Amino acid sequence: MQPHTASTRISQADIRRQRYKRNERNREFYDCIRDIVHHPVVLRMKEYAQHCDTDCYEHCLNVAYQNFCICKRLGLDARSAARGGMLHDLFLYDWRGHSRKTGDRLHAITHPVAAYRNARKYFSLNPVEREVIAKHMWPLSVFPPRYPETYVICLTDKYCGSMEILDHYSRVWKKWKPAAPLAHAMEKAVKKYPRIRDLQEILPELDSMERAAVPASFFGKRRHPSAGLSHGSGRSRDWGQGRAKV
Fold first, then answer.
1. Which of 234, 62, 33, 47 shows the shortest CA–CA distance to 161?
2. Would you list the DSSP string of 90-125?
3. Which pLDDT value is given to residue 234?
């Protein structure tokens, strides 16, 4: 067994320091969105699919976290970016069947407006939060953003969505031999993505009662035949892959 050197002790101290900073950052993030994440209307996002086997709530949580980390590092309004990110897809409908029911075939353009209308009913929004929600699909929106926080979500939303899709298909295609090499490359990319599936992953000390109060997600329900829900993949979700590294 090798003796501990000064460099090893310094390295361990650095690791402890980084862990402390990470925990502080995660607590600050949670404080920004505490009144949002447990709101009954926001929890309804768990009932709707977003990207493959990711529901709207999980997608918004990931975008909000990325917004917060990036804006904090850039010296921007990280609080507003996190809050706007948590509400940016609060459109509250199944977009896959939306066009058949309503005739609206422009979900990519119209859903930010629907999310904004729902968000302002239940939350007091500042100008940055309003724009982050309403213009997160720019350049599909007519007018360009005024605030740098909105440009951040235009990138984080696409990044998170892409990683959620890669995560899904890396597991599906891994079972198909001709696509296995591509699936392996996709899996490696996804492992670098700091994905959050629930708040306990970044804040384990959260009260377990809070966790118990959160209803099961759409994709948690569909695993049970009695729920009468199904998914195009016809496959249960593997929650053990690509857990968050925060």
1. 62
2. TT-S-HHHHHHHH----HHHHHHHHHHHHHHHHS--
3. 38
Residues of the chain with pLDDT under 70: 1-10, 12-21, 52, 95, 98-105, 172-174, 176-177, 179-180, 183, 186, 190, 192-246
Classify the C-alpha dihedral 182-188-191-192 as positive or negative. negative
Q: Which residue has the tokens 């075939």?
A: 105
pLDDT at residue 50 in the model: 76
Residue in 144, 155, 139, 134 with CA at minimum distance from that of residue 67:
155
SS (H, E, C) 41-88: HHHHHHHCEEECCEEHHHHHHHHHHHHHHHHHHHCCCHHHHHHHHHHC
Unique residue bearing structure tokens 């940016």: 88
DSSP state of 143: S
How far apart, in whole angstroms, are the C-alpha atoms of residue 83 and residue 60?
Answer: 10
Domains of the chain and CATH, by start: 19-157+197-227 (1.10.3210)
Identity of the amino acid at 1: M
Render pLDDT for 166-202 as a digit per residue (tens, 0 to 9): 777 777 666 766 766 776 776 777 676 666 666 666 6
Specify the residue for token string 């804040």. Answer: 203
Written as six digits, the tokens of 204 are 């384990």
